[in-house]
Amino acid sequence: MTKIKICGLKRIEDIEAANKLCPDYIGFVFADFSHRCVDKETARELKSHLDPKIKAVGVFVNEDIGFVAELLNEEIIDIAQLHGSEDEDYIRELRSRTDREIIRAFNINKIESLSAIKDSSADLVLVDSGTGSGETFDWSRLSEIKRPYLLAGGLGPDNIREAVESIHPYGVDVSSGVETDKLKDHGKMERFVNIVRETDARGVHILKAEREDLEEILKLQYIAYQSEADLFKSRDIPPLKETLEEVIEEFEKGTVLKLVDGNEIIGSVRAYEGDGTVYIGKLMVHPDRQRKGFGRKLLAEIEKCYPDKRYELFTSTRSVDNISLYKKCGYEIYDNKVINDELEFVYMEKKG
Prior knowledge:
Elements: E1 3-7, H1 12-21, E2 25-29, H2 40-48, E3 55-60, H3 65-73, E4 79-82, H4 88-97, E5 101-107, H5 115-119, E6 124-128, E7 149-151, H6 160-167, E8 171-174, E9 179-180, E10 183-184, H7 186-202, E11 204-208, H8 214-224, H9 226-232, H10 238-241, H11 244-253, E12 255-261, E13 264-274, E14 277-285, H12 294-304, E15 310-316, H13 320-328, E16 332-338, E17 344-351
Parallel strand pairs: 1-2, 1-8, 2-3, 3-4, 4-5, 5-6, 6-7, 7-8, 14-15
Antiparallel strand pairs: 9-10, 11-12, 12-13, 13-14, 15-17, 16-17
């Protein structure tokens, strides 16, 4: 589902409104040129009233690293969002002082190349048209970004449906779009959040799986791999024997994507990187949704999570449909391995 961030909260009543709506993130602005700016003690008080399920993001513009780390380590904020000229050295230094997440914001109108977004070592990136500008930009430019990002800049209840439907960002960030006379308008906040969630519920999207999704993904796996079991006339195959604990280990090791239709997970794929190669596995789509192009879309999306790498996967020689799909997606057989008289694997690769 599309992540939601409501930024620039500065009053207790704003926090209370957020608690009712339960966005994924709220933001405290620490840039003194903004009318939304809060100081440390105000942020501490606001955070004490915030629902623990909601993460508090501190927004900074070329702030002293010590102050940012202090707010993170005192748990006044959970995540730091950097909106100035902070470079990779700044991020490395901040990481040396705290283990909290970092969001790096990029002004689409000022960066020379989208490679700056791709190469950022931040945990997550945000793309907008200027710090708090409240202006939209040409969203089609974002099609080249091959990593999850938060979309910001000029979003509000009147255009958020179009944004979610057209570019499917990992998350959306709103501030001035839910304000009236420079104060948070709780009615606009509610409308914004409801539209995002209604839009998510209406379409099929590929999103990064959360830990709480893993049990549902494992249930889907048991359903999706019945066809493989039929090929071998046996239910004694690894995908049908995998435990939730093993899926959690794979989740923590790499990346798991989910294909969702409304609130239902109908497909998934997972991958991890080692020595320059991305190993892809458990590409699955619910039997009722197969042959609609979803497998190819899942494979393309997991590759985007690891751009410009060598990709490797394997399947059994009996899985003719799988081999055909992988070949159509640019994979070539480079090796095979005989397991026993009944089972032989083919290994396929695609060079980034």
